[in-house]
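Now for today's protein.

===
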Amino acid sequence: MLTMSETVLQNTLKAKSGDALSSDWRECEQGGRRTKGIYKSALNGKPVITVITVVFNAVATIQGAMESVLSQSYDNIEYIVVDGGSTDGTLEIIKQYDHAIDYWLSEKDGGIYDAMNKGVNLASGTYIGMLNSDDLFASRDVIRNIVETAVVSDSDAIFSCLNIVDKNNLSRILRKCRVTKLSSLLLRIGVMPPHPTFYCKKACYTDVGFYKTSYRVAADFEMVLRMLVRKKISWQFLDQITIVMRSGGVSNNGIAARIKLNLEIIRACKENGLYTNTLLLALKLPIRLLELIR
């Protein structure tokens, strides 16, 4: 018979997408302020904003990502870290921040989108966003600025700008990503706001479901597409650089990865009733070139 704590944990980790829990779920480790009975709640004019970091074997960058969240000037952030069972020292670094992280979990998972689903399911914030384990907030006031925009507009989603930098030299900017609109037209050519800048109400996930783990590189694109087409979310563009992303992401790592990405974009559009094809996707190339020269 499961103990009460095991039952709560098992129920918490059940993704609404219907993905089954792994048979070795009991092997997970967990920690953070929640395990000590400390929870975040909305304050007057200060909604809880959940930031989720999913990580697997990123010992070289995870500390920087966590420090970036924990040093934010906004003081009502719920920080959740989902580790995929790292073996390179990542987990040991996470444990050093046990007193500051609201909740962390470490266990084997089905990949990055499976881990994101766990994080979303664990989140209690009004708005939810993702910070990758090798990314950084561009300043200490990023979440404060997002919250101010969200409170004034009451939009379902807020998104902003992102710089892609040399992974060995963070001061060297390679691309400046600035997508100012969330529209069906842009999605048809494969352009969406950078996912790490995208913060949306938890109600959006409740309405449309979780990331589809059958996608390997474009589940974030499909999710945004689903929210726009099915939920018809309202949105607000924040014209600020909020994220510094190291180069070398899985979806941009070589020709084969780009082909895989485009095929998944076409599939996502088809599944959500939005027509596109490879020729239409080629129209995003001028946008990518502009990102290089801005």
